[in-house]
Design brief:
This protein has 395 residues and is of the alpha+beta class.
Length: 395
C-alpha cells in the first residue's frame, strides 16, 4: 500500500544511504504517477539531488586541561578533520560514527582515571557549503586512584592469592577496563575468573562493589560466589558436514567426566583451527551449564572450508622444460575408498593426508611421489617424566 508512512520511510532510507557516502545535504523527493497498465497501481519516482559532499573542516575540543587535544582527536577514528596530506583517511561526517567516537573520548578519560568525565555539550554547525565544524565541550572531573581492595566469600583461594592475581596495587590510577580485565578477561589468561574456571568453578561469579570514596581514592569490595566445581557431561559437534566427529573429538581436550577447565576449551579452539578444515572465524563454543546437577554440556560449532591443494609449476633448465603436477587431499578417508556413494568427488572426512606428486622433463627424467599420513589422537599417548604428563607431538 502506498501511504505517507511508506513515502517517509523510503525517503529516510535513501537519505541515510547518501549520508553514509558523505552527502549529508542530499535531497530526496518522491513523486507518483498512475500506472497505465493497472488502474490500482502507481509508479514511484525517487528523485535525488546529491548536493555537495560534506566534510569536516575543524574539530574543536573545549574544557580539557589534563588530556591533550591531539590525544582526544586520535580517539575519533571515524570522525577526522579534512587535511590535504591525509590520503588514506576519510573526513566525511557520518552521525552514527560520530556518536560512537564520542563514547571513545569518555573511554579514554576513564582509562586515565577520570571516571566522572562527560561530554556536557557538542555542536555540529556549517563552516561553508562543503564543510562543517564540530565543537566538543568536555568536563574532566577529578582523577581517581585505587585504595583498599577486600574479598568476601572466597574459600578456595586466600585474599593474598587473589590480590596477586588481580595485580592492582594501592595508589594505582583507577581504570574500570583494567579492573574488569583483571577479574574476567585478561588476554594472557591470568585473571581471577580464569583461576577459578580452570579448577572447574564454572558457576563462579565476582561482583566489584565501590564501598567508599574518600577524596580521590576508591575502596572496593569483591563479593564472590564460588559455587561448586562443574563436571563435563556431554560433548557435541555441530556444523561438520564433511569431517567425521571422531576427527574433531580427538582434538578436543574436554572429556565427559572431567572437571570443566576454560583453558582446555581455549586450547581446543586453537587445535581445531590448526587442522585447516574449518573457518577459524566461525569456530564457537557453547557451554550449557546445569547448576542443579553441577554439570555442563559443551557444544563445539564449526564451519567447513576447502582444505585440498593443487600444485602446477614449470621451469626451464639445461635446455629442457621441467613440469611438476601435484595434488594434496588434507581430509582424506582411506576406509571409504571402496564404499559406494563415498566419492563426492573423493572419499573424505577422516582427517588423513594423501599427497600425489609427479615431476618430469619428458623421456629423460621422471619422478613420482606418493605419501599417506594418519594423524594420531593428540592426547591419547603420553609418558610420565618427573611426575608430569607430557604429550607426544601429533604425527
Amino acid at each position: 500500500m502506498v501511504n505517507d508512512e511508506l513515502i517517509i520511510s523510503t525517503q529516510n532510507l535513501v537519505k541515510e544511504y547518501y549520508r553514509d557516502k558523505g552527502y549529508y545535504d542530499a535531497e530526496v523527493n518522491i513523486t507518483q504517477t498512475p500506472d497505465t497498465s493497472n488502474a490500482n497501481k502507481v509508479v514511484l519516482f525517487i528523485n535525488v539531488k546529491q548536493n555537495n559532499k560534506i566534510k569536516i573542516n575543524k574539530i574543536n575540543i573545549i574544557g580539557n586541561s589534563m588530556v591533550a587535544d591531539a590525544k582526544i582527536r586520535r580517539q575519533l577514528k571515524d570522525t577526522k578533520e579534512k587535511k590535504w596530506y591525509s590520503l588514506f583517511s576519510t573526513s566525511k561526517f557520518i552521525e552514527e560514527n560520530y556518536k560512537k567516537d564520542k563514547q571513545k573520548i569518555i573511554d579514554l578519560y576513564n582509562e586515565q582515571g577520570f571516571r566522572d568525565a562527560t561530554i556536557v555539550k557538542d555542536t555540529v554547525y556549517r563552516y561553508d557549503n562543503k564543510t562543517l565544524n564540530i565543537d566538543i565541550v568536555v568536563e574532566e572531573g577529578r582523577k581517581y586512584y585505587f585504595r583498599n581492595i577486600t574479598w568476601v566469600g572466597n574459600t578456595k583461594y586466600s585474599s593474598d592469592t587473589l590480590n596477586r592475581v588481580l595485580n592492582i596495587k594501592r595508589g594505582d590510577v583507577y581504570n574500570q577496563a583494567t579492573l574488569e580485565g583483571a577479574l574476567f578477561t585478561s588476554q594472557n589468561g591470568t585473571d581471577v575468573s580464569s583461576l577459578y574456571m580452570d579448577m572447574g568453578y564454572l558457576f563462579f561469579n565476582v561482583t566489584p562493589v565501590e564501598v567508599a570514596v574518600v577524596g580521590d581514592s576508591i575502596d572496593f569490595e569483591m563479593r564472590m560466589y564460588e559455587g561448586r566445581p562443574a563436571t563435563i557431561n556431554k560433548i557435541t559437534i555441530v556444523g561438520n558436514t564433511k569431517t567425521n566427529d571422531h576427527v574433531i573429538l580427538r582434538e578436543v581436550l574436554t572429556k565427559p567426566g572431567q572437571l570443566f577447565r576454560r583453558s582446555d576449551i581455549i586450547s581446543t579452539q586453537r587445535f581445531l583451527a590448526q587442522l585447516g578444515y574449518f573457518n577459524p572465524e566461525a569456530l564457537q563454543v557453547n557451554p550449557k551449564p546445569d547448576p542443579i546437577n553441577g554439570t555442563v554440556d559443551i557444544e563445539y560449532v564449526v564451519e567447513e572450508k576447502p582444505s585440498d591443494q593443487i600444485e602446477l609449476s614449470g621451469g626451464w633448465g639445461a635446455g629442457r622444460l621441467v613440469g611438476t603436477l601435484g595434488v594434496t587431499f588434507n581430509n582424506f578417508s582411506a576406509r571409504n575408498m571402496f564404499k559406494k556413494g563415498m566419492w563426492r568427488p573423493l572419499p573424505a572426512g577422516d582427517g588423513q593426508r594423501l599427497s600425489i606428486r609427479g615431476q618430469t622433463n619428458g623421456i629423460f627424467f621422471q619422478s613420482y611421489n606418493l605419501s599417506f599420513t594418519e594423524r594420531l589422537v593428540r592426547w591419547a599417548q603420553a609418558k610420565l617424566i618427573n611426575g608430569f604428563c607430557v604429550p607426544y607431538s601429533p604425527v
